[in-house]
Design goal:
This protein is α+β, with helices and mostly antiparallel strands and about 450 residues long. The protein has nine helices and nine strands. It is elongated, with a radius of gyration of 71 Å. The N and C termini lie far apart (about 155 Å).
Length: about 450
């Protein structure tokens, strides 16, 4: 069977979880020295991850999850909280090795479907293939590549490693991986065989190594003894190196302490200088602000005075314009009153003229009557002389009336002629007197018409 290995994968501290991340990080794995001598660094470049996160990216994803959940009360020992559940994935035994990488990615999708974003990453190791003796039969076997799934044990917003890794969750994952393997690759993951005791990878490795040691013990006693002696020498040398390193570390600590003190003094000086500079800049800024404020007030006062002057000038101009308008209105009123007076005078003159014309008409009618009576009885020279004298008197009377009437009614020249009104009386009398001088008797005078 190739069921995922949950046992031994619980981490109860952030430091241990990140140590797991670091151990299986491809870049750091290639640089570091490992106690596991089965790691083949020439193949480490073949290692990969499901989400593509490096060590820093995986640590950030883990820290973000820790910050987003209720981590509960601090505890220690067996009751310490579980912050990471690591699960080892094995490909099916019957799966061809060239299909392992593809199967690992499909297995990652199955786990993501079950655990969502609580699946932080899967780190796949392709550099630990090696032969090992079966712990039961002693037969040589080749180890398989594997992956370390890093699961964050969050349930309903809280850390809960116990509920997260229940037997039901494990069985559900086993069934899903087996179904995927059969469907996509035609091989079952659960092949019916069982592993007793739920041993961890490390215990299996230890058991295999024990068998290997037993098989080689007879040939390796000398090698072991030499190795132990060499190990003792190495241990002694390591202790010496450790003491030397400790002394050097103590010197480094003292030097670091001195450097820290000097750095603190430098930092204090820098802070003092910064404070002084800040005060100077603040004082200068206050002065600049005061000057700008005073300048703004002066400009505002100047603008106010200019506005007041402009307003006074505008008021004066408006007053002059208003006075001019008032004078024009007064002049127009005077012209209107004068025109009204002239119109009234013209009306009075017209009435006077009409009255005088009426009186003239009456005089004409009386004159006509008198002339008709005188012309019937007048004879010879006395009649002519009397008519002439009467004509002269009448002309002297009518002419001033005609002139005064024309002036009073303001009739344009050319519209009143001597042949109109009483002037025609004089001309008619002159004509008749001329006839009387020729021996003719005058006829009845009808008189002029107005």
């Amino acid at each position: 069977m190739a069921a995922p290995q949950w046992k031994g994968g619980k981490c109860k501290s952030v430091q241990k979880a990140k140590a797991y991340f670091r151990h299986n990080d491809k870049d750091r794995r290639a640089e570091a020295h490992h106690a596991n001598y089965h790691i083949d660094k020439s193949k480490t470049h073949l290692n990969f991850t499901y989400r593509g996160l490096d060590y820093k990216g995986l640590c950030k994803a883990f820290d973000d999850k820790m910050a987003s959940v209720d981590i509960g009360r601090e505890s220690s020992g067996q009751n310490a909280r579980v912050v990471l559940q690591s699960v080892i994935l094995y490909p099916p035994a019957a799966l061809p090795r060239e299909k392992e990488r593809e199967w690992f990615m499909d297995a990652g999708r199955v786990m993501e479907a079950q655990f969502g974003d609580n699946l932080l990453e899967i780190q796949f190791d392709m550099d630990e293939e090696h032969e090992y003796p079966d712990k039961d039969t002693g037969e040589k076997r080749m180890s398989r590549n594997h992956g370390h799934a890093r699961l964050f044990p969050e349930v309903n917003g809280k850390l809960n490693g116990k509920q997260f890794s229940t037997a039901a969750a494990m069985k559900r994952l086993n069934a899903a991986l087996d179904k995927m393997s059969v469907k996509l690759y035609g091989v079952p993951m659960m092949d019916g065989t069982k592993k007793k005791g739920g041993a961890t990878v490390e215990s299996l490795k230890a058991a295999s190594l024990l068998v290997e040691v037993e098989q080689l013990q007879e040939q390796a006693d000398t090698l072991i003894t030499d190795a132990m002696d060499k190990a003792a020498e190495i241990t002694a040398e390591a202790r010496r190196d450790a003491r030397s390193a400790k002394k050097e570390a103590d010197r480094d600590r003292e030097e670091a302490k001195r450097e820290r003190g000097a750095a603190w003094v430098d930092a204090q000086d820098t802070m003092d200088s910064a404070d002084e500079y800040s005060r100077t800049v603040r004082h200068q800024a206050d002065q600049d602000a005061q000057e700008k404020k005073a300048q703004a007030e002066r400009e505002a006062e100047a603008m106010k005075k200019a506005a007041e002057q402009d307003a006074a000038q505008i008021r004066q101009e408006a007053e002059r314009d208003a006075q001019s308008v008032r004078l024009q209105v007064a002049a127009m009123r005077d012209e209107r009153d004068e025109a009204q007076a002239e119109r009234d005078a013209a009306r009075r003159d017209a009435l006077d003229y009409a009255d005088k014309a009426q009186r003239l008409k009456k005089a004409r009618d009386g004159l006509q009557t008198a002339l008709q009576g005188d012309l019937r009885t007048a004879e010879a020279k006395e009649a002519r002389q009397g008519a002439a004298a009467l004509l002269d008197a009448l002309g002297a009377t009518v002419r001033p009336l005609l002139a005064q009437a024309a002036h009073d009614v303001r009739i344009p020249t050319g519209q009143v002629t001597p042949g109109t009104v009483a002037g025609s009386v004089y001309a008619e009398l002159q004509r008749r007197i001329a006839k009387m001088d020729n021996g003719t008797r005058p006829t009845a005078v009808e008189g002029p018409s107005l």
